[in-house]
Amino acid sequence: MRVESMRVKIFVSLKNGVLDPQGKAIERSLHTFGYAEVQDVRMGKYLELNVEATSREAAESRIREMCEKLLANPVIESYRVEIEDGTP
Amino acid sequence: MRWGVIVFPGSCDEQDVYDALKRDMGQKVRFLWHKEDLTGHFDCLVLPGGFSYGDYLRCGAVARFSPVMGGVVEFARQGGLVLGICNGFQILCESGLLPGALVRNAGLQFVCQQVSLRVEETDTPFTCEAKKGQLLKIPIKHGEGCYYADPATLERLRKNRQVLLRYVDAKGKASPAANPNGSLDNIAGVCNETRNVFGLMPHPEDACNNLLGSEDGRKIFSSIAAACAQTERRHA
Fold first, then answer.
1. Fewer CB within 10 Å: N-end or C-end of chain B?
2. How would you class A20 by CB atoms within 10 Å of its CB: exposed for 0-12, middle for 13-18, buried for 19 or more?
3. Which chain B residues are closer than 8 Å to A76 by Cβ?
4. Does A45 fall in a domain?
5. Closest by Cβ to B108, choosing from A25, A73, A75
């Protein structure tokens, strides 16, 4: 089976209900600068990585496993995964 | 009894724990490097405070995968006593040995101060020498000590009486003003359901000698020693 390299983007964010004081501080700063239209700032983490897999599905299942085990803490965080096409 | 203090790269309170146990409490203590297998007999393992693995990704997230942690989980499963202080508490939560998680302090700032704690339960090896409702003066020093658990977990903690310490004011009231980091329900320390694993943000090792302003931290260590002595007597 052919193994491809894929670029993966992972977005980790705090679940609703978990206090996000950093998001709040950023929101206040934006208000101070006059961006009154801004609301509900939530700060998260963004990771990019290359992964080798035989299919997108195989890659996704491995990435989800990594997220559950290490990259996100399911008690407080949720995550979203985007896999880019390997073909340049 | 024998104490083991686990040292991760980036731990920084292991010497304080060692000194408090050995010098102030006259206990037998040994350091355990995180790469060691957990061999030999221990009655209580302590995961000290600090910044294990630089606290990269999340506090305690990487330390959880240290070689020694497999042994710690097994030790806990067999009923061994495990005490996690500050970063140690974070590691125990990340490992799933304790419920909930510790997130950034609500005020965003690192807090370093003496706090008053109320002992909520005394039917545990970690608090058996204290009186219910007793106040302890013990310092905290952390940036991510805001305890969080989802509502269902929080309800379970209350039902099983797993909250052992709460932040309170000088009168013993768990008020918002007495909460230094935004922890849900003023929670400062919780144990697992089987009551043999305990994690807390305050540092009892820094309150075992009057030179440091308080000796109230001794209550935690002397409780553990008393509980172990009782177990030994039962097995003798």
1. C
2. buried
3. 101, 103, 148
4. yes
5. A25
Tens digits of residue pLDDT in A7-63: 999 999 999 989 899 999 999 999 999 999 999 999 999 999 999 999 999 999 999
- pTM (2 d.p.): 0.94
Interface check for B103 against chain A (CB to CB < 8 A): the answer is yes
How many angstroms away from the CA of B22 is the closest CA of chain A?
Answer: 36
The phi and psi torsions of A65 (rounded to 5 degrees) equal -60, -45
Query: Is residue A9 one of the residues assigned to a domain?
Result: yes
Cβ <8 Å between A19 and B148? yes
Given an 8 Å threshold on Cβ–Cβ distance, is B65 in contact with A17? no
| Residue at B27: amino acid letter | Q
Which domain does A20 fall in, by range?
Answer: 4-83
pLDDT score for B36: 86
Number of domains within chain A: 1
What CATH number corresponds to the domain at position A60? Answer: 3.30.1280.10
Mean pLDDT lowest among B68-72, B76-80, B172-176, B230-234: B230-234
3-state SS, residue B13 = coil
Closest approach of B103 to chain A, Cα-based (Å): 8
Contacting residues of A for B146, CB less than 8 Å apart = 19
Model confidence at B235, pLDDT cuts 50, 70, 90, reads confident
% pLDDT > 70, chain A:
97
The token pair that represents B187 in the structure block: 């929670």
- The domain defined by B2-235 carries CATH number 3.40.50.880: yes
Q: How far apart are CA A72 and CA A45, in angstroms?
A: 9
Interface-testing mutation among B104, B105, B185, with chain A (most A C-beta atoms within 10 A): B104
- Per the CB < 8 A criterion, the answer to whether B167 and B115 are in contact is yes
Active-site positions of B?
Answer: 86, 203, 205
Running DSSP on this structure, what letter comes out for residue B105?
Answer: -
Pick from A75, A77, A78, A79 the residue to mutate for testing the B interface (most B CBs within 10 Å): A75
